Backbone:
């Protein structure tokens, strides 16, 4: 009798995958817009405010070991590329005090926002942290890296989005 259920289960599984993929932005898609509270000061930052500049966006949390591992070379890259690429850290699933301490301890001098309600996380279809998006000056996703970055890949992708059109 259970063999009658197999096609139904397969159909539901395929439908679920299609729905998830449809909502996850991929390279070539427009980056989902957002406006979120700044972590370190009053005010907000909207992705639309950065239009015209390439954007490196990194999702992180203070309790995330791989986030801590990649933070030193993110800090160095922000110093090197900061005049050509907007760096934005998106803090997720974290207490504000812990996030502030992490930014200070790691020397992350670029802007960070808090995804307090998880909407940015959901709009970008994240599965964890860290995850990073490289977005061109027109707001189109060039690359998505789920998981930690290696320094050589970070620099290669920053060169790619920072290159003149």
Residues:
């Amino acid at each position: 009798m259970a063999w009658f259920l197999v096609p139904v289960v397969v159909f539901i599984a395929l439908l679920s995958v299609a729905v998830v993929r449809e909502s996850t932005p991929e390279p070539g898609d427009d980056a989902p817009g957002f406006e979120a509270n700044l972590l370190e000061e009053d005010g907000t930052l909207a992705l639309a405010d950065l239009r015209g500049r390439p954007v490196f966006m990194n999702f992180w949390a203070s309790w995330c070991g791989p986030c801590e591992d990649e933070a030193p070379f993110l800090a160095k890259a922000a110093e090197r590329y900061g005049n050509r690429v907007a760096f934005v850290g998106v803090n997720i699933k974290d207490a504000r005090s812990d996030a502030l301490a992490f930014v200070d301890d790691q020397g992350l001098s670029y802007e960070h926002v808090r995804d307090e309600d998880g909407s940015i996380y959901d709009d970008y279809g994240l599965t964890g942290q860290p995850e990073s998006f490289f977005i061109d000056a027109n707001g189109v996703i060039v690359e998505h890296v789920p998981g930690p970055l290696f320094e050589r890949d970070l620099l290669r992708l920053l060169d790619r989005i920072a290159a003149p059109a």
